Amino acid sequence: MLWPAPVSFRSQAFIIAAASLAVVGLAALIVHEVVFTTESKLLAEAQQQCTAACQELKLQYLERANYAGDPLRELPRDAQEVSLKGISMTVLQAYKGVKGGMYITPDRVMGYAYPTGSSGPGSELTETERSFIRSLAGRASATEEITAQSEWWDRDLVVGVAVRSNDMIIWTMKRVPVLRYPFIGTQRWWLAALVFSTILGVGGIVSIWYMLHSGVMSIQHGLRRLEDDFSYRMPQVRGDLGQVARAINRMAERRMALEEKLRQQDRLAALGKVVAGVAHEVRNPLNSIKLTLQLLERRLKKGIAASNEVPECLQEIDRLDMIVGRLLAFGRQAITNRHVQAMEPLILQAIKMVHEPMQQKNVQIVQKLETSLLADIDGSQIIQVLINLLLNAIEASPPQGTVRVAAGSLGPNVCIKIADEGARIPDDVRPHVFDAYYTTKPNGSGLGLAVSREIVLNHGGALEFESEDTGTTFIVLLPIERSVSYET
Question: CA 20 to 30 Å from 448, out of 22, 153, 284, 359?
């Protein structure tokens, strides 16, 4: 299952802010729709009310005129006004908020009445209303149909309806308070509160994002510093991220204490490995001394003792002392007795030192040596290298197997090859063959090949190996002249 990629704080803040603005926009749209839908309904009702009132006024006027033979024309103006106003008052009583009357050109309003108005029946027309009536009457005088007109007055919408009756215009009008203005006026604080709360919400989101972003960036910077300097401590971070920073600091302190304990354990383990290495390296010359003394003892009993056994023992004791000194200072091998010398006697000496383990496993060593090989080396150190390689070859070889030792020149180098007929070195072991303290032997120390390679490298040479199914071959390259480095 593929999990979605994590969203950054900036993206989250943007999404929340956009959602907040969308909610506000949607709320405003809904309010707008409700307000204007209600307005349209109120305007339609007002126009319908004015139309019905206008038609009824016309009907009442025509009935009065037909019944009396139109005596209104013959009455004085004041009497006409009283009679027409009586008609208007009677009709408009049934239409709340509607005012009306008659209009006679030029610019003469008669019979005006507003019986359901808030100011009472005696309220007068304003100049704005008179101007509206003149405009409405002018439009109605040109047609027999009912004429409707609407205008904005301040914060109200005025709807007017007029119809022509002979030479008189009958009109009605109604003022409709528009919802948007009371909403903006009376309830504008609610809208302001909504906008203000939205701004606060967006500001809070941006503030939270900034705090989280700066805190996370500070922690990331601190973690990068901790990668290089574990003594560094996180700075104080505000908010809940401060607990994360403090937890990281506690973790760093505990890790430092743990690392100090591990360093102490590593030193003890390294000391144990050095002791094991000393035992491993010392065992070879001790075996050689033991074999030489046993041979000397047998010859003394037979009365045929040779004069070279004691010097050989002393020579091995000296080599033993050098090995102990080198192993105690492992990692800083020093070449103390380097000069040009023949390689063949050194190789034969090393073969002689491994005679006993060779016989115990019934392994044969076959030699193919050039007699004139010379190299600028420390002989005792190279013998140590060769003994280590020969012992490994004997141990890897099967019983009654053969170890082949060959030496010859290879360009500016002396090349010594020691091959066994043992099993192939596994692929996972090959990278660690020359690592110190790495071993696959139950009783091994992992120092033999590591020390051998360091000795060869200090001479300017190289120690390599080739491992196939037919066996493993270790190759020692040593420079013939001191100024010449390893080349192939």
Answer: 359
Q: How confident is the model at residue 109 (pLDDT cuts 50, 70, 90)?
A: confident
Scan for tokens 């390893």, then name that residue. Answer: 486
Q: Which residues contact 330 (CB under 8 A, 6 or more apart)?
A: 274, 277, 436, 447, 451
Cα distance between residue 170 and residue 189, in whole Å: 43
CA–CA separation, 485 and 468 (whole Å) = 28
Amino acid at 26: L
pLDDT digits (tens, 9 = 90+) for 60-107: 888 877 765 555 666 677 787 888 888 889 898 989 889 999 888 777
Q: Is the pLDDT of residue 355 over 90?
A: no
Phi then psi dihedrals of residue 366, to 5 deg: -105, 130
Angle among Cα 242, 245, 249 to the nearest 5 degrees reads 140
What are the tens digits of pLDDT across the range 285-329? 777 777 777 777 777 777 776 666 677 777 777 767 766 655 554
The three-class DSSP label of residue 438 is coil
CB 416 within 8 A of CB 344: no
**How far apart are alpha carbons 53 and 161 in whole angstroms?**
9
Q: What residues contact 389, with CB distance under 8 A and at least 6 apart? A: 418, 452, 474, 476
Mapped onto helix, strand or coil, the DSSP state of residue 312 is helix
The token duo for 272 is 């144990």
Looking at this protein, which amino acid is placed at residue 438?
Y
> If DSSP codes are grouped into helix, strand and coil, which group holds residue 145?
coil
Residue 397's φ and ψ, nearest 5 degrees, are -75, 150
The structure tokens 């401590």 sit at: 233
Domains defined for the chain, CATH in brackets: 9-185 (3.30.450.20), 334-488 (3.30.565.10)
Compute the distance between CA of residue 64 and CA of residue 376 in angstroms, rounded to an integer.
Answer: 149
- Which three-class secondary structure state does DSSP give residue 307? coil
State pLDDT tens for residues 267-287: 566 556 656 656 666 766 777
How far, CA to CA in Å, does 66 sit from each of 58, 70, 177, 189? 12, 6, 38, 58
> How, if at all, do strands 402-410 and 462-468 pair?
unpaired
**Helix, strand, coil percent values for the chain (each to nearest 5):** 55, 20, 25
Residue type, 353: M
Running DSSP on this structure, what letter comes out for residue 74?
A: G
- Degrees (nearest 5) of the Cα angle 341, 406, 391? 90
User: Within 13 Å, how many C-alpha atoms sit on residue 221's CB side?
Assistant: 10
**Beta-sheet pairing, 364-369 with 402-410:** parallel
